Amino acid sequence: MKDLGRKAEVFIETFPVGCFQCNCTVLGCERTGEAVIIDPGDDEEKILKIIKQQGFQVKSLLHTHAHLDHIGMAGPLKRKGYGEIFLHKDDEFLYDSLEEQGKLFGLSLQPKDEVDEHLSHKDQIEFGDHVLSVIHTPGHTPGSCSFLLEKKGILFSGDTLFQSSIGRTDLPGGDFNQIVDSIKNRIFNLKKDYSIIPGHGPNTTLAYEAKSNPFVKL
């Protein structure tokens, strides 16, 4: 457990996991030691190395959506005591088909576990002294969500918004018009210029994407 006398700083470490190089993020309250993990898709050892080095206690496993590269390690982590699984209810059908998703790519996935709580738009996810706000951003999948860490000016956009691109919409449940609407009306409408950590690839900023993203015309 962390030193309770320390300031309430936020530990943030983002790193690619698995063969699809999904961006997984560990967020921790350095005062209380409580942490959440966003999109633990693979590479259990890499994730747990950070958790153990920092002495964190994981409260929640948060998922931007239920494609295998973003949620494949949720079950194994939960069974070992590293947090409860949070997912939007509209992506349950994808999570239920996790094994089939793996087979499409020739991958054998570890068994999944039950979802503990359903994410909803405007939910507040607490970890220690810090809060993530849930923004439902459907389009890539029906239950896609983004997570806003307002205190640090960071938006975790999952596969909704990338640097100069957007998430694909040709997979089950995808909807191009819906993802464009989500980006325009729920991301670009945010009041500040946030840094954006997407589900894959390099970081970007809200201001840059609002001005330059070729897939979303304001």
Outline the structure in words.
Helix content is 24%, strand content 30%. The protein has 218 residues and is of the alpha/beta class. The chain starts with 9 loop residues before the first strand and ends in a 6-residue tail after the last helix. The protein is built from seven helices and 14 strands. The protein has helices at 44-54, 68-71, 74-79, 92-96, 98-104, 176-187, 206-212, and strands at 10-17, 22-29, 34-38, 57-62, 84-88, 117-119, 124-127, 130-136, 145-149, 154-158, 161-162, 165-166, 195-198, 204-205. It has one domain (10-212): 4-Layer Sandwich (Metallo-beta-lactamase, Chain A), CATH 3.60.15.10. 44% of the residues are buried. A hairpin with a 2-residue loop joins strand 7 (124-127) and strand 8 (130-136). The longest helix has 12 residues, at 176-187. The protein has a six-stranded mixed sheet with strand order 1-2-3-4-5-6. Residues 1-5 have low confidence and may be disordered.
Radius of gyration: 16 Å
Which CATH top level class fits? Alpha Beta
Largest sheet composition: 6 strands, mixed
Termini separation:
47 Å
- Count of individual domains: 1
- The pLDDT mean sits at 95
Percent helix: 10-25%
Q: Residue ranges: pLDDT <50 for 5 or more in a row?
A: 1-5
Task: Describe this structure in a few short sentences.
The protein has 218 residues and is α/β, with parallel strands linked by helices. It contains seven helices and 14 strands.
